[in-house]
Amino acid sequence: MFxxxxxxxxxxxxxxxxxxxIAVGLGLQYGVGRVLNVSHGEFIMIGAFATWSLYTLLxxxxxxxxxxxxxxxxxxxxxxxxxxxxxxxxQSESIGAFADSSLLASFGLxxxxxxxxxxxxxxxxxxxxxxxxxISIFDAIFAVNRLVALLFAVVISSVFYIFLxxxxxxxxxxxxxxxxxxxxxxxxxxxxxxxxxxxLGALMAxxxxxxxxxIYEIQPTMxxxxxxxxxxxxxxxxxxxxxxxxxxxxxxxxxxxxxxxFDAGLSLVAYYVIFILLLLIxxxxxxxx
Amino acid sequence: xxRVRVTTQRLFPFGTIFLIxxxxxxxxxxxxxxxxxxxxxxxxxxxxxVSWTIFSGPTRYISLASAAFFGVGVYTSALLxxxxxxxxxxxxxxLFSFILALCIGLLTxxxxxxxxxxxxxxxxxxMRHFLLWWETTMTGTVGRWVVIVDHTVVYYVMLVIxxxxxxxxxxxxxxxxxxxxxSIGEQEEAATHIGINATLxxxxxxxxxxxxxxxxxxxxxxxxxxxxxxIAFDPLLSFMPVLMAIFGGxxxxxxxxxxxxxxxxxxxxxxxxxxxYYMLLFGSILIVVILFLPHGMxxxxxxxxxxxxxxxNANP
Lengths: 289, 316
What we know:
Chain A is 78% helix and 3% strand. Chain A is an all-alpha fold.
């Protein structure tokens, strides 16, 4: 009994850690840049598949891929914002109109990235074994790779949180989130900061992808599911609240783990029910203003 | 005043529309069956896009629930098709979608902008996943067979729905109701202040647009023969009308019709010729349209016309 509970809880924390990581990235892109990036999951998928290719073809450790995928995806995200979204933002009459058009543009990105990936990696489900020895904690047995993934997710989120709250660039980002016009007046280069934010979102996806590939099966169409989970977590935590996204990630992970214990087929249904109820009852989320 | 006349000027006079309709109605008599089937698919997209535009065009609430309403029609057809005659099934499918839209409309009163978009998308996905779970664990079969109907009948039903949706869109656009919708789109608070019951107007329009999507789903199911939740609630069917309407331009009734017709034809050609690159091209077109044609093809034509008029005025 106790080991079952521990199994469900730790399983929930592992899922939650990854959810928190991807939600922080998406939350930053929407909270600061007003881009609801539905192609977020595709960046995660790219990270996961790059890791898979590097490991199976060249034998590069997934933990090393983490350091490769993150920065590469950061650059890609930065460039996409600099070209596509910055142009759209300058063209739009209002920020609301920009939110709509950028959403549609990111759907375009989703289709492009997903289908390029399908052409490269085909539609098969992939997986590899890495650090799959197991250790037992109070009679519950865990694979090492899951615990390592959890550890990395927590460390990366914490470092990112400290970066946002303590560094100069982090403060500029938060200023731009509060009020872009005033931030610009105060000397923040808004175009650069927004592009960095989008890049940082992609960076988080680039970290989450390799971790996901370590513990779950991956396929080129997996992106949208993670995007939706990230959106649910961001709304759950409250739009624009980084702490909210982190807490929301773990809450959703635990709920997912509990539902999966009873019926795995219902976990996505449960997420949508939670999300719809949340939008109806408290659209500002648990930590929203 | 002149400018108003330029933007509301019809691209096609009434007589031309009538001629096109007669041509469409007599088409199965002298063309190959393949063309009739192709036209049925094109009409399906046109109907969904026009009905999407009835609500989302003037109000600027982007709904991603089209697939949900379509899917309800599809499943009505699958469940009732064997027991009832076709017209009853289609009307039932439309009514179920209508009722679903009324419920969603009443629930989403407080949601706007991004929240509305995500909510409508989630409703569709929830229905799809729930149905998938229900069919696999409760009934044991994922898919269902649908009673087959002759393809000319499907075509004519589609044509009738097409004429009805055009009429509905035209009447709404030129009524006080349509004016109320547009003022909600411009500024909802102001619209409420001048005495428009925004909630009621939005909900009813949302339901009307769902009505036609349900009807289309009900008849389309008979063409597909076999359906499952993934086919019936395909999220792509929620995005397609948005893209097609934006591509055509939502400012005029003709815009969505044109956008959907061109796109549906392109889809048909691209999926057969480049099955692996089709979605890639689709994504690229989506981005290009959003970047360079914010007012659609019709907007582009109007801009060119306006420029032409200006030039004429400049050089008398």
